[in-house]
Amino acid sequence: MEGARVGYLGPEGSFSHEAVTALESAKLVAYSSLGDLLGAVADGSIDQGLVPLENALEGTVSATIDGLVFNHDLIILQEIVLPIHLHLLVRPGVGLDDVTSVRSHVHALAQVRDFLHSKGLASVETTSTSQAARDVAESSEPWAAVGSALAGELFDLDVVAADIEDHPDNATRFVLVGLEIVAAPTGHDRTTIVCFQDADRPGSLYAILGRFAARDINLTKLESRPTKRGLGDYCFVIEFEGHVADDVVADCLTDLQAHLARVKFLGSYPVTGEGASGRREEVGEARRSAATWMDAIRARVRPS
Fold it and tell me: Which residue from 36, 66, 61 is spatially nearest to 228, judged by alpha carbons?
């Protein structure tokens, strides 16, 4: 959306800031927490928000998924996958042996757990990686921050140790969320829903998944989340290939809605990466061929 006000987890220099710059012509607004950011989209203070959904090493960002599932009625419009390289940032003149504690977002700290342990460094959680960099820059203490090279540049910090993430191929998937509007189908799309059961019973999850399998819909992610209504009460967040505009997807969601307590639609949106489009085309061609076969059989039915 041209000139849209788009919020991100700030301050400047966060990975969210780096990801949101991929959106052209957007007016960027920084927020200090994911809760405030999602709330601002929900109440119309801004048009859209870019939030981290999952990391390749640490999995789902609970503050984001719980905000989308339980707290707000927002729609995912787009995803952006950002490679993540984490660096240890210090004020000029501070050496690695001088550092007394390391600050960063909880997910970033978890991604460098082995490095911190090997150096015997204690950690302190902050609201974002860039907030950690700001804290280090403004303090006279020999602290360090785990963050991006961009944060180091913005806050005049030195990289005392580069690429300290514990595993290679680290990346974070961000999603752009807004109100009401569903992204147009591209033929290379993903849909996210939440399935709420009226009661937990043997085979209930199997019954849900079977509806996707019967329609050759490929699941890309399945996650259970506590409903916050009591111990052992869960809902299921399901991501799968296809768009709600696809007849087979619409049929599946209609079937689920008819048999479950509630299905919450979180969006159909373009996928980053390759492969899904080809698989959906193969499934579509197979179903068209099967439909032609059935039409030929039914055409042979004698009228009464």
Answer: 66
Distance CA 115, CA 105 (A): 16
Query: How far apart (Å, rounded) are the C-alpha atoms in residues 71 and 202?
Result: 29
CA distance 246 to 139: 55
Q: Going from the N-terminus, what domains does the chain have, and what CATH number goes with each?
A: 1-83+171-181 (3.40.190.10), 87-161 (3.40.190.10), 182-304 (3.30.70.260)
How far, CA to CA in Å, does 218 sit from each of 7, 172, 182, 186? 32, 22, 21, 17
Distances (CA, A) of 254 to 106, 117, 188, 219, 262: 38, 50, 21, 17, 11
Q: What percent of the chain has pLDDT over 70?
A: 95
Q: What local confidence, expressed as pLDDT, does residue 169 receive? A: 84
Q: What is the pLDDT of residues 215-240, one digit of tens each?
A: 999 999 999 999 888 787 889 999 99
CA nearest neighbour of 139 among 180, 103, 175, 172:
103
Confidence of residue 108 (pLDDT cuts 50, 70, 90): very high
